[in-house]
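1st attempt posting a full record on here, be nice pls
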Amino acid sequence: MDRIGPEKLDELLRRHGGPLVLYARQWCDAAEDVVQDVFLRLFQQTIVPDKIVGWLYRAVRNRAIDEARGEARRQRREGLVASNGEPWFKPTDGEGLDAPAVAAALEALPIDQRETIVARLWGGLSFGQIAELTGTSSSTAARRYQLGLATMRERLRVTWVKTKNSRPN
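the predicted structure (as tokens):
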């Protein structure tokens, strides 16, 4: 397929923009800029990638890591402390999990586990897609996901009832 059209670009942005911003936020504070840059690059491609969603996640990941390196260099050079960025979760008024505690537990995970959880839960990617994205096997992606969730459950002292939707108690 030749260049991507504005309608398809808009559809991709609406469907994947939010999860991609959250995905990029793992590495850098300028997640929105990273996602915007990647969509601009996609629009400028003369040939559209075969697996557009996978390409978007890979490009966002690479661009976010580059941005994080640049941020670290600027911080060292300027001696400034980086901002905490935006929260992972929107606060709720009802009962349920404590969003700041969950965000802290998520941020405390090793990057490979956090990346897998975010890509799976917010991005809706399959373990096969995550494996392709991270250069691992799908069983490694699944293992990272399960280990990360188990670590978060332990840190949050949350028990989970084994159901089809796996909701917390």
